[in-house]
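Retry 2 of 3 after timeout on previous attempt. Resubmitting structure tokens to design endpoint.
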């Protein structure tokens, strides 16, 4: 029955320590929420087979926006970038999977939408660099920092019943 299947999955999950390789923090920027693209963006990562470890809709306070984009402080677009990220709710998500940082960056597409390939999120849905829909960590190390910043409450560990059909 469905309940038995769930119990098997959960007990397997308890036996599992580190399932996968990389972690990525990705989040919809406010335009993804405003434009009704939340489900579309989540769906791409979900269908690929990555694990959703954390997700929440949140209003971003200025201090968090500045911390998140600290590496860009001093650049001419920094004030506008912080204003943009704080301009409405974002959906913050953590995805886990083999090489998810590199794969996720490919799925998101190049920073400037006119350079991002068709088939990527930015290539399909964005037109300008200042409204490019989604952020994805650029390295495993930055993902770790961003997870600590956005998800201090911790992440959810679970195992999908599809696991053996996706992961060899
Ligand atoms: P990415 O988001 O692809 O990792 P960067 O880390 O270089 O790109 O930049 C962070 C964000 O800052 C970009 O996604 C974009 O929203 C904004 N940004 C970058 N360069 C510019 C620019 N020249 N003008 C306006 N906004 C920019």
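Retry 2 succeeded. Sequence:
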């Amino acid at each position: 029955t469905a309940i038995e299947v769930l119990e098997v999955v959960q007990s397997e999950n308890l036996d599992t320590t580190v399932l996968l390789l990389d972690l990525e923090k990705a989040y919809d920027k406010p335009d993804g929420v405003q434009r009704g693209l939340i489900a579309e963006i989540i769906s791409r990562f979900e269908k690929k087979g990555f694990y959703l470890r954390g997700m929440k809709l949140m209003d971003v306070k200025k201090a968090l926006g500045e911390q998140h984009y600290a590496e860009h402080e001093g650049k001419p677009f920094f004030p506008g970038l912080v204003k943009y990220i704080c301009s409405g709710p974002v959906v913050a998500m953590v995805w886990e999977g083999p090489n998810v940082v590199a794969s996720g960056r490919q799925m998101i597409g190049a920073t400037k939408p006119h350079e991002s390939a068709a088939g990527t999120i930015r290539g399909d849905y964005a037109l300008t660099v200042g409204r490019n829909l989604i952020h994805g960590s650029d390295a495993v190390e930055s993902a770790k920092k961003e997870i600590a910043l956005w998800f201090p409450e911790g992440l959810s560990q679970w195992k999908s019943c599809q696991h053996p059909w996706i992961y060899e």
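Attempt log closed. Strands lie at 22-28, 51-58, 90-97, 134-136.
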